[in-house]
Structure formats: structure tokens, C-alpha cells
Design brief:
about 400 residues, alpha/beta, eight-stranded parallel sheet, eight-stranded mixed sheet, about 40% helix, about 15% strand, globular
């Protein structure tokens, strides 16, 4: 048995899915090979970055014989027999969330344990093998654990390779819009980006727009946060869009094509630029080599309590939200460092981060300036590709999983 453990929608798309697909090509596994000796399961863990709907997003992939939602994780630990039969031997693989959850799960099941570590392997003593993204994680590992570690590379480095085979977009100057996948971000992101798109369309009439729909978000959610039931939407001038086929059309006539398939790497890799909120998708866009502007409008601090950890949880409690939550968000923004994944990885400013009381008018003007200078966009694209590293991490990680399986389960 192979059990993949993860948390949020970004990790599911960029880590879990490609690894699961590779494992099915490498091994005979259920559910794609009924009757095979080895099965593949997905366990989702509690996490402030999760939406609670990740199990629904992963189900249509037909990669897992069973998916355990995050809300059932503690029940799984206490009584695993209630979640189907478990072979005596197997491998638990960490692919997102808190690394300690896989420590607990592997110990409870009596399975071997493999962690994929981006920056630090927190529990090397309780892992059989460690798959490291790069030298940063390797340098942080004590010498006594180096023997069980292998640098495999960035799992997202394979994304652009897979995207090249997908169908091309229609001709045009395409801009991708990412309003977010959580309530706090959507409340701000939808009206902000709708007005930005209207203004950008006026500046560059040939500009076309893609709006990828996150697997944990519905089109009805997008319409809700873009409409009058969202108080923040009233502060922006775009107005309520209408759904026409598979597109949102603003009252000004700006058309935002909805990307319902997930992941939509092929379409995104053909865009000239992305406008995005902060989130795991910034790593995904960087892996695709897609230039981006990262937007954090701070004029809506009272709905921006989307931080991680205990402080973030306290900031979302009803009685503390308006005092502690706003204060926490303001403090985090003043002491923020870099917010987007490519800048954090590089330790320097690679993609622009626009944080403050920014307006759609300002962002539309800056976006138009970027689009009018394709050589600048190409330079940014090359910088992102340099950060990505070489493909092959998915294959290396899958091979490590296979090596940990007991004899007879890798046929």
C-alpha cells in the first residue's frame, strides 16, 4: 500500500497528482489496475491552507482507491480499520501539510515513511528516506541523517514539460487572473480583478482574459463574490458580471474565459502575464515560467485574515476578528519579507509584489506597460525558468517510493 498525504489545492495539483500518475506508470496499482497487489490512497490532513473540499477535487482523477477527507484524519488515526483494510506493510509519503501528521500516520499503520522536504526535513529520525528539493534542505540536515536523504529536485519543474503537449490558445494577448480560492481572498480578489480587467481592456483593446476556476471553487462562488451580496464589490466600478457560456462578461463587455479543467497548465503556459493574489499558485505559475504581478490590496485588512498557524486561527475567531485579526494582518504586512513563492525561493525580488492601498487603475496601467514591453516579460520568464531547475524530480521520488515497498508489491 502507498499512502500519499497532503493538504491544500496547490499541493494536490502540483505535487500529488503528478506523483500519483507516475506511480501508476511505474507500478501495477489499484484502482487503475483492479486486483493488483498494491493500492494507492490519499489522506488529507488538517491545515489552515486547506479548504475542506480537496477530496472532491481529487476524486475525478481516478488515481486513488480511497480518499480520506481532512475532517476524518483524527478518526483515521484512532480507528484505521474503519477506513477499509490495510495491508501489513506499506509506505506513507508526505506531500504537503505539517510533516508531523505523516509521522503519526506511518507509526499508527506501521508503514515505512518518506518525506518530500522543500526547505527543511523536520523529523528525519522518524523517516526511512528523505527526498529533498535542493541544497537548502540538504544543508539543514544533520550529518547523521545524510545517508537516508536524496536530492531529487523541485517536483514542479516537470510542469512546463507536460504543458507543452496541450492544445494552443486562440491568437491574442492573454492575461490570466487569479482572484484566490478562499473566501477572504475572493471577497477582495473578484471585484478588484474585474475592474482591473475592464480598465486594461480599455488601455489594450486586443487583450484577452483567462480566469482559472480553482478545484475547490465553483462558478457560483465567483458570481457571488463579484455581485452585490459582497459588500466589497460595491467599492469597485466594474459591476456585476453575467455568465455567458463558459465566460464571465462584465457590464462594460469585458469577457473573462473560465478555465474549468484542472490543472490548466497548457493554457496558462501560453499566457503573457498573470495577475494573482498570494498563494501556492505563485509557485505553480513560476514553474510554468509565467510572469506575474502579485497583488495584496491592504485597504481591506478586515477581511484579509488568511494567515497560517495559531495566530491566524485566533484572528479568525468571531470575538477577536476585528481587533486581533486586523492588528495581526497589519503587523504581518509590515514585517512580511517576500510573500510570493518565487521570491521566497530566490531570496530576492524576482516577480513584482504590489502591497498597499493599490487600485485597479494602477495595476491596469502597470500591466499594460509590461505587455507593451515583451523583452521585459521574456527576461522575467527566463528568471523564473532559472529558478525552476531541471525536470525529473517526480520520477526520482516515485523510484524512492518503489524502493521502499516490500517485495511482491512492485510487480
Amino acid at each position: 500500500m502507498v499512502v500519499l498525504v497532503s493538504n491544500g489545492p496547490g499541493e494536490l495539483t502540483t505535487w500529488v497528482r503528478p506523483v500519483a500518475q507516475r506511480l501508476h506508470r511505474l507500478l501495477a496499482m489499484r484502482p487503475q489496475q483492479p486486483g493488483a497487489a498494491c493500492g494507492l490512497r490519499l489522506v488529507l490532513v488538517p491545515c489552515p491552507n486547506g479548504t475542506g473540499q480537496e477530496h472532491q477535487a481529487a476524486a475525478p482523477w481516478n488515481l486513488f482507491e480511497r480518499i480520506t477527507p481532512a475532517r476524518q484524519f483524527w478518526s483515521l488515526l484512532l480507528r484505521p480499520e474503519r477506513f477499509g483494510p490495510w495491508p501489513k506493510q506499506g509506505v506513507v509519503v508526505f506531500l504537503g501539510g505539517d510533516q508531523f501528521w505523516t509521522v503519526l500516520l506511518s507509526a499508527r499503520l506501521g508503514y515505512r515513511h518518506l518525506t518530500y522536504a522543500e526547505w527543511v526535513a523536520r523529523w528525519p529520525q522518524w523517516n526511512d528516506r528523505l527526498a529533498l528539493m535542493g541544497q537548502v534542505a540538504a544543508a539543514r540536515l544533520a550529518p547523521r541523517w545524510q545517508g537516508k536523504a536524496q536530492v531529487v529536485g523541485d517536483l514542479m519543474a516537470d510542469l512546463s514539460e507536460a504543458a507543452r503537449s496541450e492544445a494552443p490558445l486562440e491568437p491574442g494577448e492573454w492575461v490570466a487572473l487569479f482572484p484566490g480560492s478562499k473566501r477572504a481572498k475572493l471577497r477582495v480578489g473578484m471585484p478588484f480583478l474585474l475592474e482591473t480587467a475592464d480598465r486594461l481592456a480599455a488601455l489594450r483593446p486586443g487583450c484577452r482574459f483567462l480566469l482559472p476556476v480553482a478545484p475547490t471553487v465553483s462558478v457560483a462562488d465567483l458570481l457571488h463574490y463579484a455581485g452585490p451580496s459582497n459588500p466589497i464589490a460595491r467599492l469597485y466600478r466594474s459591476g456585476e458580471p453575467q455568465l455567458q457560456g463558459q465566460a464571465l462578461v462584465t457590464p462594460s463587455g469585458t469577457r473573462l474565459e473560465l478555465l474549468l479543467e484542472n490543472p490548466a497548465h497548457g493554457a496558462l503556459s501560453q499566457c503573457q502575464l498573470a495577475l494573482t493574489t498570494v498563494g501556492a499558485n505563485t509557485a505553480e505559475l513560476a514553474a510554468l515560467g509565467l510572469p506575474m504581478l502579485v497583488l495584496v490590496p491592504t485597504q481591506h485588512l478586515h477581511v484579509m485574515q488568511a494567515w497560517d498557524g495559531l495566530a491566524g486561527l485566533l484572528g479568525r475567531l468571531p470575538l477577536l476578528r476585528w481587533v486581533f485579526g486586523v492588528a495581526l494582518t497589519a503587523w504581518r504586512l509590515r514585517h512580511r519579507g517576500f510573500l510570493s513563492s518565487p521570491n521566497i525561493a530566490a531570496g530576492r525580488l524576482v516577480v513584482p509584489e504590489r502591497v498597499g492601498a493599490i487600485t485597479p487603475e494602477q495595476i491596469a496601467a502597470e500591466t499594460a506597460d509590461w505587455l507593451a514591453n515583451p523583452e521585459r516579460l521574456q527576461g522575467l520568464r527566463e528568471d523564473l525558468r532559472a529558478l525552476r531547475g531541471q525536470p525529473g524530480a517526480v520520477a526520482s521520488l516515485a523510484a524512492m517510493v518503489k524502493a521502499l515497498l516490500p517485495a511482491g508489491e512492485d510487480a
